[in-house]
Each structure stands twice: as structure tokens, then as C-alpha cells.
Amino acid sequence: MSKSRGNVINPDDVVLEYGADSLRLYEMFMGPLRESKQWSTSGIEGVHRFLARVWRLIIGPPLPNGTFQDGTATVNEKPTIDQYRCLHRTIEKVTEEIEGTRFNTGISAMMEFINIAYKWDRLPLSVIEPFVLLLSPYAPHMSEELWCRLGHTESLAYEPFPKADPAYLKDATLVLAVQINGKTRGTIEVEEGCSEEDAFRLASLDSKLSRFLDGITVRKRIYVPGKVLNVVVEAPKKANVVGQ
């Protein structure tokens, strides 16, 4: 772009139409800082829509008169394990990308978080607050307003940046070894925290393992969560041979 060709974008005009946060966010979303980029109006419209989605998610839908409620749509409830995992994986990703000055991929991680959060029935406050702090370096003005509406009287600038909890960064599923009378016969994939009953049910439904369990009397089950399920069964009785 150059003034002589008349194709210069005036940032003041962009701020008036889309807001300073949208301009700031788009500049970081355009790609790696070391690469040259081409301005795209559709690109800034995209990040502007993202910020609008964040606002509607946290504040709630607009009222009939076009305004929004004073509070938020959050609830003071304990998050689910999946919500914790989603949050802390986003924290980990955004933190890594900030440290590597890869702001565009950090923004993508926050966009993915919002897409998932829209599917939740509830928005726990203890999940939304850290997300607002994550967003604040990218969209400081809107984040400050959201922070205030979440009930805080001090600026979020004084808050520590969120840290990912390693406990929630583990895979949601685990591979569990299944043994029959102490001999490994296969594996099944189970949810973390899977109960013994659920693990046995999944083993019984597995095409490779079911042949060892169908019609067999189970004497006992030995279950080590996350590691192994050992099913102790009675040995099948040998059929009597006629004439013996």
C-alpha cells in the first residue's frame, strides 16, 4: 500500500467502524509478525464477529430494545471436568503462542474455546473469568468491560495471567489392558475415571474380547483404574465323550 496509489487504510476509520479491539486483534491474527501481510476487510469483519460472539456468550443475548443486560450469563457453579479441560488446554496453548509471538494461533485457540463454550448448558464463573484474562492482551477494552460486569471493582490489569493446571491437560481417554485369568487378551479405550462396571461392560462389547467372556462364569474382577482389568473366570467344563 502507498499514499501515491491511494490505497492506504486509515486506522482511525477502521476504529470508528469496528472498534480499537477489532483492529488490534486482526493485526495479530493476520499471521506471524515477521511476515508481510495483505489487508483484508473480510478478515477484520471476521474477528469483529468473534468478539461479538464472546460478548453475547458472556453477557447474554440482546434485549428486545437492542441493549444488553447489566450482569452476565455466568453461574456460580462448579465446572465439569470437560469444562476444566477445555479451559486449561486453551490456557496452555495461548500461553505458548504468546511466548513464541505466534499470536494468530493463540487467537485460533480462543476461537475454538468459544465454539465449544456455546454448546454448554451452563457458563461457570470460574471458567469464564480466566478466559477473559486470556483475551485481555488481545482485546483489552472489551475484556476490561467484561471483567467489570463479572463483578470486579479492580482493573484486570492487576490480575495474574492464568496458568494451566497439568492435571487437566491429560488425555480424556486411556488405554486399559484387559486380562482373562491373568493373561492379556486385548485392550479397550476408556474415559479417565472409568468405573470397574463400565470397564467390564466395554470389554464385554469388544469384538475381540467378547469371545473370552460370552457364556463364561465370572468368579471375580480385579480392577486397577487406568491400568488393567483382570477378569477371573471358571475354566470351561470338558464335554463327556460317549462310550467312555
TrEMBL record:
Positions of the Aminoacyl-tRNA synthetase class Ia domain: 1-28
InterPro entries: aa-tRNA-synth_Ia, Leu-tRNA-ligase, M/V/L/I-tRNA-synth_anticd-bd, tRNAsynth_Ia_anticodon-bd
Keywords: Aminoacyl-tRNA synthetase, ATP-binding, Ligase, Nucleotide-binding, Protein biosynthesis
Methionyl/Valyl/Leucyl/Isoleucyl-tRNA synthetase anticodon-binding domain mapped to chain residues: 86-191
Pfam family, one: Anticodon_1
EC number: 6.1.1.4
Gene Ontology MF: a single term: ATP binding
Keyword Flavoprotein: no
Catalytic activity: tRNA(Leu) + L-leucine + ATP = L-leucyl-tRNA(Leu) + AMP + diphosphate
GO biological process, one term: leucyl-tRNA aminoacylation
Domain of life: Eukaryota
GO CC terms: cytosol; mitochondrion
Family annotation (PANTHER family): LEUCINE--TRNA LIGASE, MITOCHONDRIAL, LEUCYL-TRNA SYNTHETASE
Protein family (similarity comment): Belongs to the class-I aminoacyl-tRNA synthetase family.
Protein name listed in UniProt: leucine--tRNA ligase
Lineage: Eukaryota, Viridiplantae, Streptophyta, Embryophyta, Tracheophyta
